[in-house]
């Protein structure tokens, strides 16, 4: 009987120590509060803030125009960011996915923002997420990844930044001067 308990104990310990009790494909990677991403398909490398306090992801946009083409609504905007002290800009045109109501701190009313789907690379993997378009000119980071996206794939370490593989998305960079 003692041999049976011993073997059962060994099997039990082996099962969990080898990871059989862990769903490896659904495990989340630990990343920092700031990480570099590559915005696709344009291949633009930039830092992003990973913000678990914000529900949704957001991108800086100026001159936002909504228009209709072939019976569908589209959004055209200028994405402007600072690259090594030089202001860069990119005209982005995407199908309008929906509008989001965003409640800002200290305001009684909500902002209504257009939402577009954008593709980007982070730590060697491509992702798609919905981004609200907002004037982020007064923020340090023109691109923010929010909690709804982050909770699916990552755990954020607020004491760390830029801990993902900096070169893992380099194959997508088109504009590296």
């Amino acid at each position: 009987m003692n041999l049976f308990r011993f073997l059962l104990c060994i099997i039990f310990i082996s099962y969990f120590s080898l990871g059989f009790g862990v769903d490896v494909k659904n495990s989340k990677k630990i990343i920092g509060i700031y990480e570099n991403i590559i915005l696709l398909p344009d291949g633009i490398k930039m830092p992003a803030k990973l913000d678990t306090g914000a529900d949704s992801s957001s991108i800086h946009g100026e001159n936002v125009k909504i228009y209709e083409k072939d019976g569908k609504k589209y959004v055209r905007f200028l994405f402007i960011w600072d690259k090594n002290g030089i202001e860069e800009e990119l005209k982005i045109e995407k199908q309008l996915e929906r509008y989001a109501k965003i409640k800002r701190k200290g305001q009684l009313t909500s902002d209504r923002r257009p939402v577009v789907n954008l593709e980007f690379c982070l730590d060697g993997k491509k992702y798609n997420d919905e981004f609200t378009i907002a004037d982020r000119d007064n923020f340090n980071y023109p691109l923010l990844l929010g909690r709804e996206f982050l909770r699916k794939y990552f755990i954020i370490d607020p004491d760390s930044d830029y801990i993902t593989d900096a070169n893992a998305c380099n194959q997508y960079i088109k504009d590296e001067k």
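The longest helix spans residues 2-17. The first strand starts at residue 29 and ends at 32.
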